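Human: We require from you a protein record containing the residue sequence and its fold in token form, and nothing else.

Assistant:
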Amino acid sequence: MAEATVPNGRGVPFPRRLPVAFRRLPASSEASDLVAWWWLCEWDLPDGERSDQRVLAFPALNFTVDGEGAAVAGPTSTATTRILTGRGWVIGALLKPATTPVFTTDPASLRDRLNPVVLPELQARVTELVGNGCLDGATEVVTQWLVGRAGDLEDSARAANLMWHLATTDHHITSLTSLAEAVGTSQSGLYRLARRYVGVSPYDMLRRRRLQEIAEHIRDNPQTSLADVAGRFGLTDQAHMNREFKAAFGITPGEYRTSLRGP
């Protein structure tokens, strides 16, 4: 089922604090090689209020269209925060690696960056649909734009999609050796695909999935000891987990668990 491919709880550390309408939608069959899923967000905050949205993003490019224009965001090194105020909306596509050449030949150059993309006609069409209450329908307009520019995919692009999918979703893939075997290439082959299509290393992809899953597990199982959490996710000890988690989120797993009880 398509819905099973859209992990609504991962990547958002504090989903219950979202004062916004946030959804993830599966891509259509036409865009299935290009878009992992769509994420749609709308907000309407009272004057003087703001919402700090914390995200540990999936290791990929995101293409967005909002009231200000279009942009492509590269993969991130750590969790990031976007501050929302007033009223607004955004349509985002978590891009599969095969779509990367539409925007860049060097995805690593986009790491931790948001680059505007000047597309006035696309932005105007999407804005019109959103204004008519068709936020979901606007994804089809963006789909057609992406499909028209991606063209026929190379075999290497499809291999990169497979690598990314396995690294970010398959719980049985826990090492570069198992990932290379599943993709049908060498470890050096994985790194070549990652450099061309992702912008972060295959190891970083595996680590990002683990950190997202650790946060989700702590959130869903607050009574579980952190030592048990570390063991569950294959870390040598709790101290190891603390270091990796803090490097990504800026707080330790214990501090994260405590903060979940806050307002």
User: Anything to note?
Assistant: Confidence is low (pLDDT under 50) at residues 1-5. The beta strands are 21-26, 35-44, 50-55, 62-66, 69-73, 80-85, 87-95, 114-117.
